[in-house]
Specification:
single chain; alpha/beta; Nitrilase/N-carbamoyl-D-aminoacid amidohydrolase; five-stranded mixed beta sheet; 7 helices; binds N-(4-carboxy-4-oxobutanoyl)-L-cysteinylglycine; C-N_Hydrolase_sf; cytoplasm; hydrolase
Amino acid sequence: MVLVAVGQMCSSSSLVENAVSAVRLITRAVSLNCKVLFLPEAADYIARNAAHSKEIVKPVTESPFIIEIQKTLKKFHAEGKSIFVSVGVHEPSETSDRVKNTLLWISDKGKIEQRYQKVHLFDVEIKNGPILKESASVEPGNEVLKPFETPAGKLGSAICYDIRFPEIALRLRTLGAEIIQFPSAFTMRTGVAHWALLGRARAVDTQCYVVMAAQSGSHNTSADKPLAEGETATKRESYGHSMIIDPWGTVLAECSDILPGKEDICLADIDLERLESFRQNIPLWTQRRPDVFGYDV
Ligand SMILES: O=C(O)CNC(=O)[C@H](CS)NC(=O)CCC(=O)C(=O)O
């Protein structure tokens, strides 16, 4: 059994401020003896609009957010307190003027070892709810990242809105995932209705542990610079409720929403023997019917 942590935070548009928050969460996870910490989507910053995101994005080698995390992990490693971090960030695209919404796996020695780029972009207009067009600033990824070994088990990766597309989760299970992560910045309106439902559904239909690190609270309430004339800032509020769910669909741990926007952490043991017994009891992966549906997952 391996103890993992989910860190919940409320990113602003300051990479430096958000690094302070990430380092605090890493330090808490280390002191609680966790081997892995999962941080949310867009932990490096939540920009006020598409143009702002393109303006503040930095390559990882120049991002004060990433550099600070790497320094912290190296320091803990040198003290014999190893922890691995998964973290959602933005990166410039080499081929367009849009940014990439990516998830980085950073080793206990501070090395970026894996990278997933969000495939499904959140372009929606909900009546009396959020209007968001992620593709205005973000370039979609085109590949599923093969699940990789971690101290807690084989980890599959998807980001936020990807959770609504069961095929990516099913594919990750087929490719060997034991844990699937969905770092997120869910909206309030959709979060209330769907967040826990989607997480539990993906856990039950893949028989994987599901780890959902979330942004929580109101972003950019104190803008770090005044808006230019004619510039508008999208009011963003994230749902929070970060969770760790087991393959039976039980919510093992959930972050508090008593103080929306405040950092929080929750922990659970990943138990691969339990996972194996769930899979043996209900052997879904030997019972699929590609002959009926014309494709396999
Ligand atoms: O890149 C950033 O700045 C942060 N990215 C996000 O917040 C993304 C795109 S706007 N949010 C979601 O995908 C929410 C999905 C959601 O809420 C749902 O599926 O209901």
